[in-house]
Amino acid sequence: MFAIPQVLSLLLGFIRDPEAPQWKGYFYATLMFLLSCLQSLFNHQYMYTCFTVGMRVKTAVMGLVYRKSLVINSAARRTCTVGEIVNLVSADTQKLMDFVVYFNAVWLAPIEIGLCLFFLWQHLGPSALAGIATVILIFPLNGFIAKKRSKLQVKMKFMDGRVRLMNEILNGIKILKFYAWEKAFLEQVLGYREKELKALKKSQVLYSISIASFNSSSFLIAFAMFGVYVMLDERNVLDAQKVFVSMALINILKTPLSQLPFAISTTMQALVSLRRLGKYLCSEELKVDSVSKALSSSGKTVIHNGTFSWSKEGPPCLKRISVRVPRGSLVAVVGHVGSGKSSLLSAMLGETEKRSGQVTIKGSVAYVPQQAWIQNATVQDNILFGREKLKTWYQRVLEACALLPDLDILPAGDATEIGEKGLNLSGGQKQRVSLARAVYRKADLYLLDDPLSAVDAHVGQHIFDKVIGPKGVLKDRTRILVTHGMSFLPQADLILVLIDGEITESGSYQELLSHHGAFADFIHTFASTEKKESAIQRGTGTSTKITCHNFCNNPQTACTKQVFLFFLFFVGDTTNTNLQNMEPVSENDQDQVPEDLGKLTEADKAHTGRVKLDMYKKYFKTIGLAIIIPIVFLYAFQQGASLAYSYWLSMWADDPVVNGTQTDRDLKLAVFGALGFVQGIAIFGTTVAISICGIIASRQLHMDLLVNVLRSPMAFFESTPSGNLLNRFVKEIDAIDCMVPEGLKMMLSYVFKLVEVCIIVLIATPIAAAIILPLAFLYAFVQSFYVATSCQLRRLEAVSRSPIYTHFNETVQGASVIRAFGEQSRFIMQANERVDFNQTSYFPRFVATRWLAVNLEFVGNGVVLAAAVLSVIGKSTVSPGIVGLAVSHSLQVTGILSWIVRSWTDVENNIVSVERVNEYADTPKEASWNTEGSALPLAWPQSGTIEFQDYGLQYRKGLELALKGITLQIQKREKIGIVGRTGAGKSSLALGIFRILEAAKGRIFIDGVNIAEIGLHDLRSRITIIPQDPVLFSGSLRMNLDPFDTYTDEEIWSSLELAHLKDFVSNLPDKLNHECSEGGENLSLGQRQLVCLARALLRKTKILVLDEATAAVDLETDTLIQSTIRTQFEDCTVLTIAHRLNTIMDYTRVIVMDRGYISEMDSPANLITQRGQFYRMCREAGLV
Q: What region holds the ABC transmembrane type-1 domain (predicted)?
């Protein structure tokens, strides 16, 4: 590296000396070329080795973190979220890799800087110190700016706020559409976005200062050195040798100067990451010896005087436990919520901290957790769980676990892929798949943690008889069953009663009843809930017994309650989620099975080929020509200044020496300084201008994306995973904010720089054109070849990265199941395979970069050779100054070329983000929100009559109609109940009235206005729905009731009073400004349902639709709600989609839906006397 300026010095000496033989010139030129080539080869070989080592470090650490996640104990697991662990794998391992690649710069850079200054000293003497002083000054300036910028990371805060809000909008999109609230939320998101962009703008301006100071650094150093050198002594003359060798050295100096701060910050980040990884890898692990395994499968499972806790310091969760389980017996474990039933099973698995006692387990174990853990794989893979498939046994397992009817509904039977966390299965189905996985194992000991809670009563009975009970498939195995179903207890061999972590009673059913202890009371309280239950019985026709008891006593977390509620809705009426969509799947639809597979849909979307030109057009169009043209001029101006000051130097160097000095040096110095200064200001101007353009573009693109997404119909959100949409709002928008303008800045500045070099070489030796043109074509060819490959590799790498994280997520959540089944090694293998697969597309990417760089540098070295050889040939005609100028500039070509390609690739890779953000511009949109000049009276609808004329509706094109030819007239103030079995089309009626789905045929009139002819917001804001699942958004309670601020506080309080929430809200410290957390999780489900009721009371429209609004509420609250609705909405038309039939017995009419038709319609009393479908439903519900 340092030899090259020395050779340059010799070459310039040769040009100055007319006597020198010609061969010397050619020798120096060739030597320079060879040295440059050697430098390229060594440098890239070094980079390649570093990258390979870095990659190995990264994969090793990923494997470590993964293996650790399988052995970490529950106390440690609570301290780090799944997100944090995934972060360790994604971000921190990458930081370590960067560290390996750039670490050597930390000690190399100072040495290089030292050498440069030493050589400069040789050439210019003490005035080199002026250069050092400049270097020392530039550093603190940049450090100060970096500090200011890190303070501006506020952008992240606003970004987090915006992303959180987007997440909620996507989760609650249905509610936004029902209430016509899109505009209010649009404003909120844009508010966050503006703040975010403001912070970004400040940060970019500061950054521009630091770029300008850095890019002008070579000028500043030269200016200081030459200025001091000339001023020190009259005799100090600047000749070509001094000027251009110094310039070449200064250009070398720039590399270590720029690498040093980067290397230091990389090292700092790596240290932070190491600390985080260390903390995680050193966290406590499960003790292997807490359970002793006996190999022989005969004999008993024993816990002897055991005391267990969840963490070392925590209170014990089980005390003085002694259990002997004879082989092949069925043990039932009962007790209230939180009495330690699940902990008992965990203790047997060795998941808890053993304080004292001993646990012995015979043979292999299978475990069914309380919350089913389902992998993102096919149903069959979930059940086989790594074992090979035995056809007959597999069929028996499916039959016993009552999975056959479910497999008929799923689009591809047991080959249907299940989404993340079992996205497309109901709670009951997940639980049964989880049970089937255990049964298929043929283990010796079965630990079943309440597997029957999520399934309905008759299915539960079937599973007990066929699987768990004395006649089931597992009759010879040892079974320990945690249960709330009292009906199963008489058949158990042994019952353990747990109270507060102690076994208070144990024995058979009859023995315990005769003791008259806690167990006997337990049975009696249960019997009384049985009676109450017949009132709740829901007439869905799948005579479901869902016990109140089951609901309240779900152990441990509220999560299970959510699974359970999900299940209530599922058995009841799923508002156009799974079942209705899935029933009519025609043969040719079969291959589109993975509809809602979180990550998978994203993976399919890797575009191929180069990025379309349209994307660039779109991006630049967003900015506008008015700004782009001045930027190009600024760039040309900046490069012009740079060219002028270089040319000025060469003229100065050629200035004849008179009496040992040169004339007018002050003037020369002043012009030199002025030109350099102008260039610095121009650099600052261009960088700021481009940053501002980037902000204009990203503001517009984000706005378009947001509006496009909010204007999409419901069907779009059902088929697009929210992860994909969020990804657009986070990653892609972030890339458009920062990366695209960065890449453009780099690219433009280097392209113009290249033009400048070419002009200089051509001025010196016009013949060079003959060589530069072919080299340019070669370069263009190499580059286009590379950019296409790199783009594609980058997309492949991104696509193969997602499965790593998905797999990680799953493993962390299902660690206890994986351990219980002893499948750790298989999962570790899978994780390694996924990481390797990702590396196979990562490795070619950086090898391609090295290939490109080596090729380009050879092209660049060709330019050096050309400039040198041609100047040797034209020795007599060219001056040393011009030769120095040409050769020292051509030495920069290699660097410039590789930077152009890198920045060009960056731009291509990041413009992909524009492509992805743009994807949703062409998806189908809803009708317009408001129609211009519509003559709707303000008070419409006044009376609230609804008329359906031959109305039909379908969920997606190609599916059969969900409603077929409905004709129906509803008078004002009528109260209509709508009943029917799952999938009969009850909710479809509501979706039709709100135009969530557009009519496939026929019309709906409200007060004589055809609703298809008015704007969606005009329609949706004038009628009200209380939806099935109550959704709240994070923000104040007031915002949740009235996002547009249209009502007074008095009105809001009175609506809360009517919704029976006034006492609750007035006891809150912030009252109406009480912050609801994400999804309203700091309110109970029932309270959320009441908030939705309060919304309806506020709007007080003439038409009210209740979609199974009281499913989540206990009986008492249900009666309150019903009475409120009866009194407050007396003069409104009310449509209730009912599951609890007792709520609609006093309605004016009941409509019975069946497969999309109206099968019966009359007053409830008349329907019962007709003894039709409605009568049968009432009989099942115990109402007649």
A: 1-269, 631-909
Q: Return the residue matching tokens 């082989």.
A: 327
Any idea what the Cα angle at residue 1148 is, between residues 1143 and 1149, rounded to 5°?
A: 85
Side chain identity, residue 540: T
CA distance 704 to 920: 9
Give Cα separations from 739 to 646, 743, 886, 1058 (angstroms). Answer: 32, 6, 34, 54
Amino acid 545: pLDDT: 34
- The amino acid occupying position 1035 is G
Q: Using alpha carbons only, give the angle 294, 299, 300 rounded to the nearest 5 degrees.
A: 85
Instruction: Give the pLDDT confidence score for residue 238 in this predicted structure.
Output: 77
Asked if 334 and 489 touch (Cβ cutoff 8 Å), the reply is yes
Quote helix, strand, coil % in the chain, to nearest 5: 65, 10, 25
- What is the DSSP code string of 1067-1096? HSTTGGGPEE-GGGTTS-HHHHHHHHHHHH
Residues in the chain: 1184
Buried b (16+ CB within 10 A) or exposed e, 1104-1133: bbbbbbbbbbeeebbebbbebbeebbeebb
The number of angstroms, rounded, from the C-alpha of 334 to the middle of its chain's C-alpha atoms is: 41
Question: 1104 - beta bridge partners?
Answer: 1024, 1134
Interacting residues of 693 by C-beta distance below 8 A, sequence separation 6+: 623, 627, 628, 631, 741
- Rounded to an integer, what distance in angstroms lies between the CA atom of residue 1161 and that of residue 1178? 15
Q: Is 323 within 8 Å of 496 (Cβ atoms)?
A: yes
Q: What is the pLDDT at residue 596?
A: 38
Closest alpha carbon to 195 in 221, 158, 157: 158
Bridging pattern class, strands 1103-1107 and 1024-1026:
parallel
- Secondary structure (DSSP) of 1050-1066: HHHHHHHHHTT-HHHHH
Under 8 Å between Cβ of 443 and 477:
yes
DSSP 8-state class, residue 177: H
Rounded distance between C-alpha atoms, residue 975 and residue 977, angstroms:
7
Looking at 662-727, list the stretches that DSSP marks H as alpha helix, in order from N- to C-terminal side: 665-710, 714-719, 722-727
Q: With helix as H, strand as E and coil as C, how does 717-740 read?
A: HHHCCHHHHHHHHHHHHHHHHHHH
* Measured distance CA(307)–CA(759) in Å, rounded: 85
Which distant-in-sequence residues (6+ apart) come within 8 Å of 773 by Cβ? none
Contact partners, residue 191, CB within 8 Å, separation at least 6:
none
Angle, vertex CA 798, rays to CA 797 and CA 800, nearest 5: 65
Residue 1173 structure tokens: 């479908």
For residue 84, the surrounding DSSP H or E stretch is: helix 82-87
Which is nearest to 473 in space by CA: 403, 393, 544? 393
Residue 342 Cα distances to 317, 508, 883, angstroms: 10, 21, 84
User: In the structure encoding, which two tokens stand for residue 809, read together?
Assistant: 């997520």
Per DSSP, the three-state class of 1140 is coil
Q: What Rg value do the Cα atoms of the chain yield, rounded?
A: 38
- What does the pLDDT read at residue 330? 92
**1103: three-class secondary structure by DSSP:** strand
Q: Write the pLDDT tens digit of every residue in 295-317.
A: 665 667 788 888 998 888 878 88
Q: Examine residue 941 and say whether the peptide bond preceding it is cis (omega within 30 degrees of 0).
A: yes
Two tokens, residue 238: 């600047």
Q: pTM (2 decimals)? A: 0.68
Task: Give burial (CB, 10 Å; 0-12/13-18/19+) of 108.
Answer: middle
d(CA 950, CA 639): 73
Half-sphere exposure of 823 (CA within 13 A, CB side): 22
Give the pLDDT confidence score for residue 440 in this predicted structure. Answer: 93
Q: Please name which of 584, 581, 594 lies closest in space to residue 416, comparing C-alpha atoms.
A: 594
